[in-house]
Amino acid sequence: MEQPVMSDRSAEPAVAVAYSHLFAGLELDLPEDTFDVTFSDGAETDASQVTDPAGNLGLDVNAYRTRAGTEIPATVWPLTVLRRSKGTTRVKLGTPVRTDQQN
User: Fold this and answer.
1) pLDDT band at 37, cuts 50/70/90?
2) 76, 96 Cβ separation under 8 angstroms
3) Mean pLDDT of 6-12
4) φ and ψ at 2, to 5 degrees?
5) Three-state SS for 36?
6) Mean pLDDT along residues 27-37
7) How far apart are CA 26 and CA 42, in angstroms?
8) Rounded to 10 degrees, what is the CA torsion of 64, 46, 43, 24?
9) pTM attached to this predicted model
10) Are 79 and 24 in contact (CB under 8 A)?
11) What is the predicted pLDDT for the residue at 33?
């Protein structure tokens, strides 16, 4: 099986997503802090776990373009923690609460 190509930021942990985009209900194993995200089509972006003033956990994902050319805006996804283990947290994405896309 071919391994995903790492970006030049290979010192950061990576999260492989089995789809070309994120969506509510998707479960992921996330490292702490900032990390690379590699999508199934080979597109890459940065993401980080964030906490709002009320203590709610979120996933802040930078904008990126899929290999098919679709522009995906920067988005913050609320997270539900399913379990924690050494260095990773299993989460479920909620409905996005902010994007940089102008309507």
Assistant:
1) very high
2) yes
3) 48
4) -75, 135
5) strand
6) 93
7) 18
8) -80
9) 0.81
10) no
11) 84
